[in-house]
């Protein structure tokens, strides 16, 4: 559990809020080099894991879950780094506190948008359950009921989400300060600012991939040009090239439904079943029809489980960001109370 003096969870745009906390020299000691290298090598490994051996794994729900887990791990790592560097939040300048709170609001907005889309997609599972239930019935109306449910599923899964449409403007705001900062007078500040740079690159990029996946638009996919200095720079560029290339190929292929792979699999099964349901199943088609129904059931279960698991990861990131705000505000309140107490004592 967080304590009032714990550092906040999150990241700042770039500048040096620590220049009054350290000696004028900004040369990195072996200890600081070790801290920075460890952080950047871990981040490089996370980017490497997001390069799948098979391109078909990109934009599966399991890949998206891995990406969100990776993001949570990096934000946790920067918390540890802040603690190791011993840069108390109570000494940060007021303007950086305001900026932190503004950025955390934007991250919460993104999480809310992603959660709303995952919940919306998962609600479509009800239509698929109705289809499968109807097809198990002996009722003469079972095909009519199943066809109606499939029509509802198609409309539902292809509907747009207004909250996803707002994500691009939020990401644009976060990306405006996306540059490697120059810190002259604080070695610790230099380490932390470079770590923040990596956190922000990862956050903006992964959130842009999620937004593009749900908006079906390459306009929401970022091509980030990063500094060559960080140890993760090359592997990030390689990962971005592979992932963006696959997403653009998917979006240009003219798919009927979203480019999410599990949704696409369900949609393919629906396409096979729909004409059979509409025209009736002939005697020679009975076994084929049963196979299609069984495949649809398995794919629907996989989709629902994947959406639930990804929603849990997005919720974890939301809670992490919200907790960071609480820690920061609690820290500041404690600092203000201490200042007031000391002031009264001096009077």
Detailed description of the structure:
- The chain is mainly α.
- The chain has one domain.
- Helix content is 70%, strand content 0%.
- The protein is built from eleven helices and no strands.
- It starts with 29 loop residues before the first helix and ends with a helix.
- The model is unreliable at 1-24 and 337-347 (pLDDT under 50).
- Belongs to the ROH1 family.
- Keywords: Membrane, Transmembrane, Transmembrane helix.
- Pfam families: ROH1-like.
Question: What keyword list fits this structure?
Answer:
347 residues; mainly alpha; 0% strand; elongated; membrane
How does the SSE layout of this entry go?
Elements: H1 30-49, H2 61-85, H3 94-123, H4 125-136, H5 142-157, H6 162-165, H7 167-175, H8 187-215, H9 233-251, H10 261-279, H11 286-346
Overall 3D shape: elongated
Count of DSSP helices? 11
Proportion of residues in β-strands: under 5%
> What is the helical fraction, as a range of percent?
over 70%
Q: How many beta-strand segments?
A: 0
Structural domain count? 1
Q: If you compute it from the alpha carbons, what radius of gyration comes out, rounded to the nearest whole angstrom?
A: 25 Å
- Given the helix and strand composition, which structural class is it? mainly alpha
Specify the oligomeric state: single chain
The chain-level mean pLDDT equals 82
Main β-sheet description:
none
Distance N to C terminus? 36 Å
